[in-house]
């Protein structure tokens, strides 16, 4: 298994990014590729290799704990890689774990593709088994924390809105949260994190 890859992001799309490592480009599926800085040097991405029948894919994460939660979610009946990524994209691992431990079905059903039956199955299968994830409140969307950025407020906001679209949110939902985001100048990843928190709590 490939533990992690470290290199330069040379291309980003809605669900994937291409990481160049030693003149080799690795296609990696991520919860939200847009929060990684394109062309950033020495980006470390923790990976999970998914193999099933004729499908071989690399999934990427900002931390080992995020990858661990992804692996646990794959053990739940009815949740595949796409569903697990959607849950990671829409909430920080510590929030997801807390919802599972507290049996908060109302929180879990807010994730794309998760209905009441699946939420109940997640709780039944994973409650009490996520101690390794609970130990850290790393946010899936807060991959970069460098405040010394040259982004303008408008560019950062637009990048964040594009990331939300990539996560599957419609223009109606985005238009509701946009005024909230404009109140304070932030980096793109901070905008995304705040937007997701607002959407999940509303």
CATH T-level topology of the largest domain: DNA polymerase, domain 1
Which stretches are poorly predicted, pLDDT < 50 over at least 5 residues? 136-151
> Which CATH first-tier class of the largest domain would you pick?
Mainly Alpha
Largest sheet: 5 strands, mixed, barrel
Strand content: 15-25%
Question: Helical amount among residues, as a percent range?
Answer: 40-55%
Measured distance between first and last alpha carbons? 40 Å
Major beta sheet, strand line-up: 1-2-3-5-4
Subcellular location: Cytoplasm
Family: Belongs to the RuvA family.
Organism: Salibacterium salarium
Keywords: Cytoplasm, DNA damage, DNA recombination, DNA repair, DNA-binding, Hydrolase
